[in-house]
Amino acid sequence: MNKKTHTVVCGYYHSVVLLSNGTIQCWGDNRFNQCSPLHSTLTYVIQVACGFQHSIALLPNGTIKCWGNNQDNQCDPLHNTLTDVIQVACGFQHSIALLSNGTIKCWGNNQDNQ
């Protein structure tokens, strides 16, 4: 299958590219597993997002996978319970998922009510 670049996203010291075949590649600083081997096992990824030292992948079944620094619960197990996600985003040390019913779920650092 063709492996052209579809999307590129950047964290603080790491980058992730979503290829047109639904796989992702990651490079850069890996002190907090931002480039964890988890990403190499994911297939059919439809969206990626990067925070300061973490990343999220949205899968076709509406679930997400998160890896990297979890100091402020930005990769909290809450994300494992979500099943109807249609979009993801990351901030510095927080994560957000837009659900198919129009609601959002946020987790991670909430120091400034983000």
Detailed description of the structure:
There is one protein chain. The protein has 114 residues and is mainly beta. The chain has a single domain (5-108), classed as Regulator of chromosome condensation 1/beta-lactamase-inhibitor protein II (Methylamine Dehydrogenase, Chain H, 7 Propeller), CATH 2.130.10. It is built from 1 helix and 9 strands, in the order βββαββββββ. It has one helix at 38-41; strands at residues 5-10, 14-19, 24-28, 47-50, 54-58, 64-68, 85-90, 94-99, 104-108. The strands form 3 sheets. A 3-stranded antiparallel β-sheet has the order 1-2-3, with no helix packed on it. A hairpin with a 5-residue loop joins strand 5 (54-58) and strand 6. It is globular. It starts with a strand and ends in a 6-residue tail after the last strand.
Report the order of strands and helices: EEEHEEEEEE
Whole-number average pLDDT? Answer: 88
Report the count of strand segments.
9
Poorly predicted segments: none
Tally the structural domains: 1
Query: The CATH topology, please?
Result: Methylamine Dehydrogenase, Chain H
Provide a quick synopsis of the model.
The protein has one helix and nine strands. The protein has 114 residues and is mainly beta.
Outline the fold blueprint.
Elements (H helix, E strand, L loop, with lengths): L4 E6 L3 E6 L4 E5 L9 H4 L5 E4 L3 E5 L5 E5 L16 E6 L3 E6 L4 E5 L6
Antiparallel strand pairs: 1-2, 2-3, 4-5, 5-6, 7-8, 8-9
Question: What descriptors fit this protein?
Answer:
114 residues, mainly beta, 1 helix, globular
